Amino acid sequence: SQQGEEDPQALSIQEGENATMNCSYKTSINNLQWYRQNSGRGLVHLILIRSNEREKHSGRLRVTLDTSKKSSSLLITASRAADTASYFCATARGPNNDMRFGAGTRLTVKP
Amino acid sequence: DTGVSQDPRHKITKRGQNVTFRCDPISEHNRLYWYRQTLGQGPEFLTYFQNEAQLEKSRLLSDRFSAERPKGSFSTLEIQRTEQGDSAMYLCASSLPPGIAPNNEQFFGPGTRLTVL
């Protein structure tokens, strides 16, 4: 069964704008990861945030984690048309870091 | 090694036929995962291997599904007596051992898209 829920399901913005996607989950986690998937392709790992971290940056990506609210957000700044893709959060839990994915946010960046 | 590879990339079959997919993980990765993804959804966990041992299977993996990793390298996923509801993208991923990659970052292959007519 899927663990996370992304919000919104779909997001359409203009190039240069910022895109924010949210993820909520239900159980305790070890870490939370964000992946990107271009249409019909495999997933690419973007960034990981551990349960004891609150914020992390990687290039134009900023991820926050609020374990009290069981939620995370992914911010993509200065978006580009090439950022158009589906974005998934995945939670890792348990002794084996079992990962479960949400349903994703489909981001469209218009040039 | 260029990453996780999967074969075939596309498979069209008739209902009732058997199909087999192959996944070749990154060579030093001892963990291998299978996921199923339907349109508009995230990947759903099916099963995973540590070396040749199959350690966990999802309830989604009915008795028509079987996965193997006989030598701890490549893996196969077989679906017997396919049904239209099996149509999906089947994704394979691999990761380093927990002692080296404690956060379990998984590297995904391009997937095999199955269409059951």
Describe the overall structure.
The complex is a heterodimer of chains A (111) and B (117). Chain A has 111 residues and is mainly β. Chain A is built from no helices and eleven strands. The radius of gyration of chain A is 13 Å and the shape is globular. The model of chain A has no long low-confidence stretch (mean pLDDT 92). Chain B contains no helices and eleven strands. The relative contact order of chain B is 0.32. At the A-B interface, strand 4, strand 5, strand 9 and strand 10 of A face strand 9 and strand 10 of B.
Summarize the structure.
The complex is a heterodimer of chains A (111) and B (117). Chain A is mainly β and 111 residues long.
- What form of chain A results from the Cα inertia axes? globular
Helical coverage of chain B, percent range: under 10%
How does the overall form of chain B come out from the CA principal axes? globular
Order of helices and strands of chain A: EEEEEEEEEEE
Q: In what range is the share of β-strand residues of chain A? A: over 45%
How large, in whole angstroms, is the Cα Rg of chain A?
13 Å
Number of strands of chain A: 11
Contiguous low-pLDDT stretches of chain B (5 residues minimum) are: none
DSSP E strands of chain B, number = 11
Provide a count of the helices of chain B: 0
Oligomer: heterodimer
Helix content of chain A: under 10%
Largest inter-chain contact set? A-B, 27 and 26 residues
Number of helices of chain A: 0
Strand content of chain B: over 45%
Low-confidence stretches of chain A: none
How far is the first residue's CA from the last residue's CA of chain B?
A: 35 Å
